[in-house]
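Lab notebook: predicted structure, single chain.

Context: the supervisor wants predicted structures on file for every construct in the current expression panel, including those that have not yet been purified. This is the next one on the list. No modifications to the sequence; it matches the entry in the shared construct table.
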Amino acid sequence: MQTRSRRTGPYRISLLITMLTAAQASAQTINTIGETDSNNLGWGYQVSTTWSMFQTFRTPSGYAVLTTLRFPAAGTAASGTVSVREFTGGTFLSSVYSSSIGVNGSTTVLLQPKVSLDPTKTYALYWTTSSGSYTLNDVYRPSSYYYADGQSGYVSGGSVSYISDASFEFYMAFGTAGPDSANTLTALKSSAAAVRNRLVAGEAVLASTLAYDSNAFGEGDVSLSFIGRYTALSDSSGEGAGALVAAYRLQPNLRLGAFFDYAPGRDAPTGTALSETEPSLGVFGVYEQNKDLTGLNIRLAGAYGHGRLTVTRDASLADTEAGSGKAGTNAFAVSAEAGFGLRIAPTIVAVPYVGLRRTDVTRKGYTEGTTTDVSAPLTYDDYGLRLTTALGGVRFHGRLDEKIAAVVGLGAEYDVGRKMDAYAGTSSISGLETFSIATNSHANRLRPSAVAGVAYEFAANRTLSAQIAVRGQAYSADPSLTSTVKYSVGF
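Prediction complete. Output recorded below exactly as produced.
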């Protein structure tokens, strides 16, 4: 037996010629037309409105789906129906597939039923006519066909008769059951966009935490701040969080601090969910030459976050699976910033600044789980976003009165280094053995930023403040918006 395979759509197709074997023939009912090609490969039989013709078959080993029916035919304005029926004990059961065919002149009937079959059962191709008559012909034999035995025959007046002609052949194609490669790739593009947006949101969150501070010191040189935060993107992904910031004043113009930020509630793009997320942790150090921010100001900060991201593929398209899996996520960010404060009015200090920030957010590689609904789980490579960004701008700090202070700032960010991985991996789906989807659209190298806030010192070493910060995103058309409310107390 010579076999080859070829790919067609979602199936690895191997073709089958069914060789018809002997039983009783009736020359009065079945008319032998004769050879139809120069290769002496087969014969033709005429189908009329007085009887139906059939060919029995079983699915070849390792296959479970009948994908293609192909046979030449000739006729004049003839029409009919071809169906697939279970055949047992000489009886045809109900159809598992049926399709109308039309024959006008010489034509090749090509049907693609994609019918799941039981390999332990025998089935029959069943032809009938509704008008005219047509001839089924064997024309040629491609080299990539399997051979298998079957029986041919006809049904007349409810009686089943068989044809003794081992030369008569029909063309049938079988395939392994499995997802559609093209539709699966379309679903993967949706997953890629959702995961990318999740990473972009994660970068926005971590970058925003680098600005955490606490500066309401008491006699013990300790300051604590309790922060409520919400960071959002316009694509409806975002998260709410609570943070605790602690700082210790080493010298009148130098403080060191640490924070943890925990997000119990998250909005995420469709198809993704964050789970088992740990608090983000960070440290910072601030040097201010003068308490009123005139002179040299330096700030260093770093943050780290870890969690697990669940991704579920969309299965709304035909022959796709809702493959799902969990992957670890790691994120870190560091920044350095220096500014010099200049008093431009009795109650206003302008602080021009420059800085550099490095962020890295990565979803680790993983393999989807196998379930009763997922026969072909996909494996994914690491997927990450890395940015090295130069910062610059000016902030204006002012006092409205002795207890109320405000800040307004405008700036810009420019990526001096950037990389967004392709959303890539492997699968066992025929035609989709590997995939790689570019996700670096909306690449904004130069982006604006802005901040505005107000603080109220309602008692000694007791401050309540609110702030809104807006940043353009490196790989999103939507800006991020972070709003915070903070209560600070000094000890």
